[in-house]
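Aim 2 progress update. The chain analyzed this quarter is reproduced below.
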Amino acid sequence: MIQIVLALGGAALCLLVVPTGVHARYLRETPADIVAMRGMPVALAVCLVGILLLRFAPVADADTLPPATVPAPRPSRWAVVGVFVVFIFATVPVGFQIASAIVVRIGHAGWVNSINTVGVILALLFLRYVFRQRELRRWSVVTSLVLIAAVYAYFFTVLEVPVKRIHFMEYSFLSYLVYRALRPHSAPPRIYLWCVLAAMLVGTGEEALSIPLARRFGAVSDVIWDTSAGVLGTLVLKYVLLKR
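Predicted C-alpha cells:
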C-alpha cells in the first residue's frame, strides 16, 4: 500500500509546517447554503447522474481483460498516485502564498487568464490525442466529448476563485491515475466507483489539512467540487477513452 504511506507522509509534511497559535477554521455550511452556491446544483447533479451512469451503464468488452491475460501488479503506478496525492497535500500550506505572489506580479486578471489558457491548452492536447486514434473517431465519442466539455466550461465559468479551477483539473487527472493503477485488477463498474471515491477521499483530506492553516479553511462544498471533478474525469475515461 505504497500510496497510503506516501499520502500519510504528505499529510505529516503539511502538519509540520502549520504555524503555531493558528486557530482551526472550518467553514460551517448548511445544506441550504451549499445548494445556494453558484453552480453547486449542477455539481451535485453531475455527482449523482455521473455515478449512476458509471454504475449501471453497459460495460464494453475493451474495459476488461480475460483472467489469463491479467498482468502482475505494478507498484510504480501506485507510486505515481501516491506522489500526486503528496503533491496536492504539500501545496495546501503554501498555495495561498504562491497564488498571492503570482497575482502581485501579473495581476488578478493575468492569473485567471493564465489558468484558463492552461486549461484550453490541455483540452486541445487531449482532443488531439483522442482523434489521432481511428477507433475513437465515432459520433458517440464526439457526442460524449461535447457534453462533458460543456460541463467543464460551465464549471470554469462559475468557479470564480482561480485556485479552484486548478483543483478541478487536478482531481479529474487523479481519477485517471487511480484507474490506471487499478486496471485490470478491478473490473468495471467497480473500478469507476473507486476512481470517484479516491477523488472524494483525497478532497476530504485536503480540506482537513486546510483547517489549522493560516488563511485557509475547510469546507464541505469544496469536497463536492473535487468529487464532481473526479466524476467528470471518470466519465471521460468510460465514454471517451474506452469507447471502442
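Confidence is low (pLDDT under 50) at residues 1-24, 64-70. The first helix runs from residue 2 to 16. These observations will guide the mutagenesis experiments scheduled for the next reporting period.
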